[in-house]
Every structure is written in C-alpha cells, then in structure tokens.
Design goal:
Helix content: under 10%
Radius of gyration: 24 Å
Number of domains: 1
CATH topology: Beta-galactosidase, Chain A, domain 5
Strand content: 35-45%
Distance between the termini: 23 Å
CATH superfamily: putative glycoside hydrolase family protein from bacillus halodurans
Number of helices: 2
Largest sheet: 9 strands, mixed
Order of helices and strands: EEEEEHHEEEEEEEEE
Length: about 240
C-alpha cells in the first residue's frame, strides 16, 4: 500500500491581513519543542508548525501510516473459547488465572503510528526579526506566523483542506521581491527525495515492519524474515 499526499506553497506579495477573530491561540515567540508547536489538520492529514522565522519546521502525519506489513486479520481464531473461562475466573476472584487466560485471547502486537515527514522552509533575509507573533485561529483553522525585518513585513499562513486533501502554505511580504526562501524535506526513516519534471519536490519513504525497538537491537527493520515489507509512502510539494 502506498500513501500519497500533496502540499502546495503559494507565494503572494503586498497582501493585506484578514479580519481577525478573538478565537486564537497567540504567542510572541517560536515553539521551543513539539509541545509548543501549533497543530492543523483535515481529519486525515495533519501538521505541527513551529513558527521559526529563518527556518520553519512543519512536521507531518497521515492517519493510515503505521509500522507493520501484510498481516493475518484473524491471528488467534481460538480466542473466543477462552471468554467464558475468563469470566468464571473473575467471578471466583481468581484474578491471576483470569490474566493468564486473557493472554491466550490476544493477537499480535499493536502497531505504531508513524510520522509522514518534515518540511523545512529556509527564509533568507538581512537583519534581526522583530514584531514577531504566531497564532492558531480556531475559527478558521489557520496557523499564521508574522514578523518584520528591515521594514518588510513577512507572513506565513498554513491550513489544511479536506476537499483537496492537501496542506496549503502561503508566504507573503509587504514589499515586492522581498521573499527569498528554499524548501526541503526529510524523514527519520529510509527515504529518498527527487524533483519531478513538473517541478514537484517528492519524498518517498519506507515505514518500519517492526514495532518492538525496546527489545530489538535493530530498531529500524524494513523487511522481516518472511520477506514482508513495511508500508511505502510519499508526499509532494508543488
């Protein structure tokens, strides 16, 4: 199974601010870590936005990307026959016996949710940012980062759209030709990146087949002994 996601970077110049709402989470400094970053999403595709002026970090996820591979959907067909013995043990206050029987009803290990990847936007300018703010507008689900450098106001607006199954990134400046930036992608798993003839930046990755890194000396396994592979996925920026 492959996952494909699309991200669109839109550039505007000399734009006006949208009407503001009081329903906002508002901060005067970039996020120090993941817990302070601002989330957006469309129900299946999501992003965490750090709001860094010179090197924005946007961490992505998608609801169907997990560890593991092709699996038996009924790995323990004998599980139902232990249900009544478990109940009997509980009614007899034999909790330890009930626990032993419950283990015979379990299937394989639950898999782990995986990140989709990172988008890095490096913005070049001369000088130190001032008048910095970042916010999450709850009323329209838009994350906005604003700052000024040498008399130029910069704005980033990011939101997720469900109909288009995309995340939109809008960059703006108050002065024409003031935007100078580059976009890159990365992942902690196996991945490769490429640029298509249509100038789309693509990250292709492989998810892990295993989810037991605490017990396994090789935490990142992409193919098991039965030659089962982890999920393949990709996202694109255009």
């Amino acid at each position: 199974m492959k996952i494909k996601c699309l991200f669109i970077v839109v550039v505007f110049f000399a734009t006006k601010a949208h009407t503001q709402s009081n329903m906002k989470l508002w901060y005067a400094q970039p996020a120090k870590d993941w817990n302070e970053a601002l989330p957006i999403g469309n129900g299946s595709l999501g992003a965490i936005i750090f709001g860094r002026p010179s090197e924005e970090l946007i961490q992505l996820n998608e609801q169907t990307l997990w560890t593991g591979g092709p699996a038996n959907l009924n790995p323990n067909p004998d599980a139902p026959k232990y249900l009544q013995p478990v109940r009997d043990a509980i009614f007899k206050d034999s909790i330890s016996q009930a626990v032993k029987l419950l283990r015979k009803m379990q299937g394989s290990n639950v898999q782990m949710y995986q990140p989709l990847g990172d988008i890095i936007i490096k913005q070049q300018y001369i000088g130190q940012p001032s008048a910095y703010t970042r916010n999450l507008n709850i009323s329209n689900a838009t994350s906005t980062t604003k700052f000024s450098v040498d008399g130029v106001d910069y704005t980033r607006e990011i939101f997720a759209t469900a109909p288009d199954k995309s995340i939109i990134i809008r960059l703006a400046s108050s002065k024409k030709n003031a935007l100078n930036f580059s976009v890159d992608v990365r992942h902690e798993l196996q991945y490769q990146k490429l640029v298509t003839p249509n100038k789309e930046l693509v990250l292709k990755g492989k998810a892990r087949i295993n989810n037991d890194e605490r017990r396994n000396p090789k935490p990142f396994i992409y193919e098991d002994a039965e030659h089962k592979f982890g999920m393949r996925f990709q996202f694109r920026i255009k």
